[in-house]
TrEMBL record:
Gene Ontology MF terms in the entry: lytic endotransglycosylase activity
NCBIfam families, per the entry: endolytic transglycosylase MltG (TIGR00247)
Protein's organism: Peribacillus loiseleuriae
Heme among keywords: no
Protein name: Endolytic murein transglycosylase
Enzyme class: lyase
One Pfam short name: YceG
Length: 377
């Protein structure tokens, strides 16, 4: 009997020891599981933080190329976020959406925006609210009014550290021009390839200041921006152009003649009226800048012998407009070409003070020359 009790006691002790051992194993397993859960949670948290932090950074800090992003009317924050992500301006649409809500940003407008994937989220938001590029331009190129293609090539070459001859040659390269035509087919029509046209892009590079956000923009990019500006400007006058039967080429040609003849103190619509009045009676325009363009050189004065230069651009020898523009023209000259003043004048000349005097007859014009011009041709 005592032996049975002793055996039973030993059995219970053994079971207790086994249970204690199992309990220790279970506790170890639980501790390991908990540790794994903590580690996984920490990793997920850190990973999530890094993911969000990465999504808040610029999509491509080294890519400063400006893109046009169109935000349609009625776009929600979610729509805007998706559009920006699809264009590569931001990394993650959802993060951007939550960022906007967290910052309590609003006031986004529909329209066309210039953005870059190197921009920060605050810069993008500011642009979307103001419609302006908030990045600092890496390069500015200013093209004044009345500049010819060869002069524009020199300006671009100087700003981009290139050979002016190389820039000018590329601007006249047919493959290059055809590439531009593919971008702006409505602007660069077949007229620029007229057999008497000297330089196809002459007069088409609009006078303005252009900002570039790349350190070394290509000539392709530079010329594209200039043509885009011309296209945008002419689009404002399409109804008038159609009504008055002006093609892009004809309008820019006439505007260039007005631009080159005008002084700072002249009303361009008056010069325009003189040109229109002469064309109405089939009289040559006889404008000196066309002679200089025909000669391909700058002179302080046009001499009588210069009037004999054999060129389709010489308006003393040829009636009507020149085959194409002789320079670029600003909006004032473009508007003057579309809306000449009402006058009966057929002649004008600039005085030494920059003022312009007009005459209806050749006799009046000669009297004005005798009065205002001391050094005759």
């Amino acid at each position: 009997m005592n032996q049975e009790k002793q055996t039973k006691k030993q059995y219970l002790q053994q079971k207790l020891l086994e249970q204690q051992g199992e309990a220790r194993i279970v506790r170890k397993i639980i501790m390991i599981v908990m540790l794994v859960i903590v580690v996984v949670a920490a990793c997920v948290g850190i990973g999530g933080y890094l993911y969000v932090q990465s999504a808040l950074n610029p999509a491509d800090p080294d890519n400063q190329k400006i893109q046009e992003v169109e935000i349609p009317i009625g776009s929600s924050v979610g729509n805007i976020s998706t559009i920006l992500a699809e264009q590569g301006i931001i990394k993650n649409a959802k993060i951007f959406k939550y960022y906007i809500k967290f910052k309590n940003e609003s006031g986004f407008q529909a329209g066309s925006y210039k953005l870059a994937s190197s921009m920060t989220l605050p810069e993008i938001i500011k642009s979307l609210k103001t419609g302006k590029v908030v990045m600092d331009a890496q390069l500015k190129i200013t093209i004044p009014e009345g500049k010819q293609l060869v002069q524009i090539a020199h300006i671009v070459a100087e700003k981009t550290n290139q050979d002016p001859k190389d820039v000018f040659e590329q601007m006249n390269d047919k493959a290059f021009i055809d590439k531009m035509r593919a971008k702006y087919p409505d602007l660069l029509t077949d007229e620029i390839y007229g057999k008497k046209v000297r330089y196809p892009l002459e007069g088409y590079l609009f006078p303005a200041t252009y900002d570039f956000y790349e350190e070394k923009p290509s000539l392709d990019m530079i010329v594209t921006e200039m043509l885009k500006k011309t296209d945008e400007v002419l689009a404002q006058y399409k109804d008038e152009m159609n009504e008055k039967q002006f093609s892009n080429h004809k309008l820019l040609t006439l505007a260039s003649l007005i631009e080159e003849e005008a002084t700072a103190r002249v009303d361009r619509d008056m010069i325009s009226s003189v040109f229109f009045n002469r064309m109405k009676i089939d009289m040559p325009l006889q404008t000196d800048p066309t002679v200089l363009y025909a000669k391909g050189q700058h002179q302080e004065k046009v001499l009588y012998k210069d009037l004999e230069v054999n060129s389709p651009y010489n308006t003393y020898q040829n009636k009507g407009l020149t085959p194409g523009p002789i320079a670029n023209a600003g909006t004032v000259s473009i508007e003057a070409a579309l809306n000449p003043a009402a006058s009966d004048y057929l002649y004008f000349l600039a005085t030494s003070t920059g003022e312009v005097v007009y005459a209806k007859t050749l006799d009046e014009h000669n009297q004005n020359k005798a009065k205002y011009i001391t050094n005759k041709k």
